[in-house]
Task: structure prediction
Amino acid sequence: MEAGFVTDQVDRATHGQSCWHPGAPEPKKARMLGIRLFESWVVEIDNAKLRPIILYRCPDCGFLEAYAP
Ligand SMILES: [Zn+2]
Result:
């Protein structure tokens, strides 16, 4: 198994498929004139490494099983 995290949508007006990203979340470091350009919870994402998450749900008990092939 490989460690990673699930990306979260920042825009609340739209929805997209959640994705899995490998590694530990690292705060986005971009700065301009010494000022941080993003909120501290915004993380670096390598779009090429994103894997859409597929969820299977048990119709009897609601148990979810996730895959990111
Ligand atoms: Zn079940």
About this structure: Strands lie at 4-6, 19-22, 31-32, 35-36, 51-52, 54-57, 64-67. The mean pLDDT is 89.
